[in-house]
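Example 279, ligand guanosine-5'-diphosphate.
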Amino acid sequence: MHRITSSQSPDEETLEALEEALILADVGPTVALRLVENLRQVAVGDESPRERLREAMLEILARSSSAVSAPSKNQPHVVLLVGVNGSGKTTSVAKLAARYVAQGHSVILGAADTFRAAAVEQLEVWGERLNVQVISHTAGGDPAAVVYDTCAAGRSRGVDIVLIDTAGRLHTKDNLMAELSKIHKTAGKVIEGAPNEVWLVLDATTGQNGLRQAEDFLRYVGVTGLVLAKLDGSAKGGVVLSIAETLDLPIRFVGTGEEIDSLAPFDAEAYVNGLMGQD
Ligand SMILES: Nc1nc2c(ncn2[C@@H]2O[C@H](COP(=O)(O)OP(=O)(O)O)[C@@H](O)[C@H]2O)c(=O)[nH]1
Ligand SMILES: [Mg+2]
């Protein structure tokens, strides 16, 4: 039987299989190569390459997972959700609202996706179900004005958490990204230091384009964390590992279904196990 001993480097076949698994899980060739290259170079102990790879990934995730800013007692904690079309922003806003309400927080929602009337309705349906107020304007209006009103309402009512849904936008469209910067600044005009968090919602089925998305959203609105939606399908969501490694962005929540309670705080161990195909 072939056994790796202390002085040997792991066999090429194993390394190649691991690299391929990473790429198939959407980790991306650059980070996959870097991870496997490290396995190749570091002297091998008793641990299997697979186990060491697992640890290396957990290390990346631990490094990027700074503590999330906590809601303060004095003013609303504002969270802005951003991302491309259909990534899961509105659903994630609703899920987060349900979660915060269950924790005893008061919540208000801002329907700043003014591009589509359906988007406002979608959020209002969730708001009714959760008994949470939704601030909206007519479709086609200025999203920054919605953000202004939502933050102002949140402040005057003394709510704990303000969650703002935004329109899906292509990260490559400068005018839409500039609009997002304006939304960001507007929140800060109403509530000092707002938004406290800007979470980029990524669809787990997004391949390496997710990294480019994260870079662009980070540049325009200072993304502070990720929400990985749709991790319930066959997708492994490896792109967030690339993002964590490359941009040092923490993953905050994971969406695992269309239902309101299908959202959980990110669990690095579970994620890495899923990535490596052992649940
Ligand atoms: N399976 C699954 N579907 C989701 C999840 N999050 C959102 N969706 C679905 O993805 C679609 C787009 O979601 P939506 O929140 O409207 O995306 P938005 O355009 O970014 O606001 C909807 O059909 C949602 O029900 C998830 O975690 N798992
Ligand atoms: Mg939406």
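Summary: The mean pLDDT is 91.
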